From TrEMBL:
Location of the M23ase beta-sheet core domain: 47-115, 133-168
Source species, domain of life: Bacteria
Record organism: Nonlabens marinus S1-08
Pfam families (UniProt xref): Peptidase_M23
CDD domains registered for this protein in UniProt: M23_peptidase (cd12797)
SUPFAM superfamilies per UniProt: Duplicated hybrid motif
Name recorded for this polypeptide: M23ase beta-sheet core domain-containing protein
Molecular function via GO: metalloendopeptidase activity
Signal peptide region: none
Length: 562
């Protein structure tokens, strides 16, 4: 694995990636490392910033400090990373451990004290460098499934001094991989209105033919003008069947290097540009991700390496024959190659371009605003990646803003004039996103004067809804009036079907109790070991509020002796 050092010396790279410390970090789990997610893997609206390490479908595996250091940050949130621990090391790197079930006892004690002081489960702490020192190999937490985790695993990251995540495998962490990257789809794109693929100004999927041993070709095709190629590829490692991301993709046009991207480091403020890097419309329609092997205009992604003409191919010489090659490698250097033959076709003088019927051209570098019915739509400058034709219409208080096949980088703003609702409990109204199958999803909306405002990064159809139903609260492991001396916990199910749970608060005999909330199961749980009450007779009060302010109060009495 030492030869990996060869891979990390690249054009355009800063010095630091060439001299990463090897064998400084040990495995963050004391079980065999099997990955369900790799660094840079393509995810919804982001590149994956670490390794997802499998924990045998269970929670509770020992999570150990990958190197000595101090706990520099603790973040507990309902969504996202759930319970997460950050350790900063003397060499300037920080390791991150996320979706944890709980922390080691002294860290757990440190956090609980502050959760009770702030009366909040969600918390963010930046301990001093002397507060929580840890040794390499020390158990600092137990693996879990908290936050936006789809199954028990450990999310592990290594970040540099500028908080940029780096591929942890570059630090000598070894995971056996002898399998070749998978090649699933290849697509060719005309990049302007004059360019053609097989005579048409439309992107086209090309048939992929496997020749064995990681060699592929596509059906031959003809093209004219400026075009680009895209690939849908994944990698599998030896110990698990999960389909992870690849490490490097390089292309050659007529034998000369054309484009390269390497998944070794990026920064969080670049991560949303993934929606411009992939064929977003193809993803929305097929749920598979095709990576463009050319740099979209304005993309700041640092995953790109040296390119020729940004990886775009110029085919202006009728009858000429061209070759194009895509070389895909995983971290261990296993190589899959696709060879393509392209015939240069003549310019199509009779090209029929798609007529953008009733569409409005919205410039990407100017702010755009339009009023339709009671709605005013604003698309701020820099929200679109390129100038785009959008279909915008309104009918019976439903605003259609194109459809979700074009990515937005920033929020667009929807304002709704509430004058027809004056006097009708206006605070209970919200803007909802209406799916093609008619389901309505709450979009966080604020009412100021007579204007209801929502921000969203998703094109699509929006309407007005009113939620007057309060949340429900149901005890799960007890009933009011019972003796609960044997209970270790109090667990309740809290739900709000329409706009969702916005906040909850629980007290025992008037004193705040810490309840941990898991949005995936709708459960809130109090652990009696917190010791808030030593009374025999207890009164529990739980108040849950939804996203438009409807609230429900639940009360129960119970007896308990330790
Ligand atoms: Zn992860």
């Amino acid at each position: 694995m030492l030869f990996c050092g060869l891979f990390i010396v690249r054009f355009g790279e800063s010095q630091t990636l060439q001299n990463l410390p090897q064998d400084y970090f040990v495995h963050p789990l004391d079980i065999e490392l099997k990955l369900s997610g790799s660094f840079g893997e393509l995810r919804s609206n982001h590149f994956h910033s670490g390794l997802d390490i499998k924990t045998n479908q269970r929670t509770g595996a020992n999570v150990i400090a990958a190197a000595a250091g101090y706990v520099s940050r603790i973040k507990i949130e309902h969504y996202g990373y759930g319970k997460a621990l950050y350790i900063t090391h003397p060499n300037g790197y920080t390791t991150v451990y996320a979706h944890l079930e709980k922390f080691a006892p002294r860290i757990e004690e440190y956090i609980k004290k502050r959760q009770y002081e702030q009366e909040s489960y969600e918390i963010q702490l930046y301990p001093d460098d002397l507060d929580l020192r840890v040794d390499q190999g020390e158990t600092v937490a137990y693996s879990g499934n908290t936050g936006g985790s789809g199954g028990p695993h450990l999310h592990f990251e290594i970040r540099d001094g500028d908080a940029r995540p780096i591929n942890p495998l570059l630090f000598g962490i070894k995971i056996p991989d002898s399998r070749l990257p998978l090649v699933k789809q290849i697509k060719a794109y005309p990049l302007d209105t004059e360019s053609t693929i097989n005579g048409k100004n439309e992107a086209q999927l090309l048939r992929v033919i496997s020749l064995g041993s990681g060699k592929f070709k596509t059906e031959p095709f003809s093209a004219y003008g400026e075009i680009g190629i895209g690939v849908n590829t994944n990698d599998q490692m030896d110990a698990a069947s999960n389909q992870n991301g690849v490490y490097d993709i390089k292309t050659y046009f007529n034998g000369k290097p054309s484009f390269e991207m390497t998944f070794d480091r990026f920064s969080f403020d670049e991560t949303r540009y993934i929606n411009q890097m992939i064929d977003y419309e193809h993803f929305q329609q097929n749920k598979s991700r095709i990576s463009k092997l050319f740099i979209p205009d304005g993309s700041p992604l640092s995953l790109y390496r040296e390119t020729n003409n940004n990886g775009k191919l110029k085919l202006l010489d009728p009858e000429a024959k061209h070759t194009y090659k895509i070389a895909i490698t995983d971290f261990d250097g296993n190589l899959s190659e696709i060879n393509m033959d392209i015939t240069n076709e003549s310019k199509n003088e009779y090209l029929s371009l798609k007529d953008p019927k009733n569409a409005t051209l919205v410039a990407h570098n100017e702010s755009f605003s339009t009023t339709k019915g009671s709605f005013t739509l604003t698309i701020p400058k820099g929200t679109l990646y390129e100038d785009t034709f959008l279909n915008i219409s309104e009918n019976a208080d439903v605003l259609k803003v194109h459809e979700d096949v074009i990515p937005l980088h920033k929020n667009m703003i929807l304002n709704y004039d509430m004058k027809s609702k004056v006097g009708d409990d206006m605070g209970k109204y919200y803007i909802a996103r209406i799916t093609p199958w008619g389901a309505a999803y709450h979009v966080s909306s604020t009412l100021k004067g007579n204007t209801l405002t929502a921000f969203t990064k998703t094109l699509g159809t929006y309407g007005i809804r009113k939620d007057t139903n309060p949340p429900t609260i149901v005890p799960v492991n007890f009933k009011s009036g019972q003796w609960l001396s044997k209970n270790k916990t109090l667990t309740l199910k809290i739900e709000d079907k329409e706009t969702g749970v916005q906040a909850y608060r629980a007290t025992l005999n008037g004193k705040f109790i810490l309840m941990e909330y898991d949005y995936k199961t709708d459960l809130i749980t109090y652990d009696f070991s917190n010791g808030v009450s030593t009374e025999t007779d207890n009164q529990l009060v739980v108040i849950v509020t939804d996203n438009v302010g409807n609230s429900t109060k639940f009360e129960a009495n119970f007896q308990r002796k330790e």
